[in-house]
Amino acid sequence: MKKKISIILPVYNEERAIASIYKAIIVVISGMPEYLYEVIFVNDGSVDNSWNEIKKLSQKDKYVKGISFGRNFGHQIALKAGYDSSSGDAVISMDSDLQHPPQLILKMIKKWEKGFEVVYVEQIKRRDGVFKRVPSLLYYRLLNYVSQITIPKNVGDFRLLDRKVVLFIKSIKTKSLYLRGLVPWSGFSSTSICAEYSDRVSGKSSYTYWKMFKLAFDGITALSLFPLKLAAIVGAFVVFTGIILLLIILIDFIFYNSWYPLFKWLATVTYIFVGVLFILLWILGEYVGKIYEETKNYPQYVVVEKTNLE
């Protein structure tokens, strides 16, 4: 019996790239007649003509399937919807802008056939600017330091997952998804291949700095309690330095008859503590907000239309 390969492609305002990525994938798949396939496009609330392009392809090819959200739920949730709807023995997730070369699909499958349950694609040469590359490098070093797992470096969401891993992903109901951390956290056997990513076919990335920051923060809060520990460290440091400052004032006052206007020190210490309290409230609010989101028991996403799917 032939094994089946599912390919998931999140889409957000990519109408010009959809036909190109489909053709590139079909070229690769046509060279693998020993496998069945399905291509699942997940329209993440696009405001252009992306969904119509997906439906056109699904009408020509019954193995092209589509999911359309009522609004933009985010890249990670779009991937989750693709995993939920997939039926392949192996599931490959990749971007729809052709930055992730479809030619690597065969290499990933060969690694999977050797028994690996997760196959990452490590980017060997990043084309990002220094303002994106350096913070990303520092972030992953911090995340690996504060969390209990090691996230492969220069690895994004271009990966292959065995069906067992996909079933684990499908069981997750949290709204603050961070798949780049959850996949290595699961502990399934993994390997990676190295490759250079391509340029975008058209347009520009929809991953704004704010979206990247939100994804990064979700990663830290999902995998570590370090922010709470950091708050304790900052608080202890401020208290310690405050005590040292008070001792200096007392020693100067008692032994050297020096006089310090008390209101200056009080104003400075109060200012510092107000800043610390705001930081603590922000971090605490993030955790409380996540708890609130989970207790609402809303679905992770809302599908308004499907094509070639039950």
Describe this structure in words.
The structure is a single chain. This protein is of the alpha/beta class and 310 residues long. The protein contains 10 helices and 8 strands. The chain has helices at 15-30, 50-60, 75-85, 105-113, 130-146, 163-170, 179-186, 209-223, 226-255, 262-295; strands at 3-11, 35-43, 64-69, 90-93, 118-123, 155-162, 190-195, 303-307. Strands 7-5-6-4-1-2-3-8 form an 8-stranded mixed β-sheet, sandwiched between helices. Strand 2 (35-43), helix 2 (50-60) and strand 3 (64-69) form a beta-alpha-beta unit. Helix 5 (130-146) packs parallel to helix 8. The protein is elongated.
- Percentage of residues in DSSP E strands: 15-25%
CATH class of the largest domain: Alpha Beta
Give average pLDDT, whole number: 83
Helix content: 40-55%
The shape is elongated
**Fourth CATH level, the homologous superfamily of the largest domain:** Spore Coat Polysaccharide Biosynthesis Protein SpsA, Chain A
Examine the coordinates and then state which fold CATH places here, giving the name of the CATH topology of the largest domain. Answer: Spore Coat Polysaccharide Biosynthesis Protein SpsA, Chain A
Question: How many domains make up the 3D coordinates?
Answer: 2
Chain-wise SSE layout:
Elements: E1 3-11, H1 15-30, E2 35-43, H2 50-60, E3 64-69, H3 75-85, E4 90-93, H4 105-113, E5 118-123, H5 130-146, E6 155-162, H6 163-170, H7 179-186, E7 190-195, H8 209-223, H9 226-255, H10 262-295, E8 303-307
Parallel strand pairs: 1-2, 1-4, 2-3, 5-7
Antiparallel strand pairs: 3-8, 4-6, 5-6
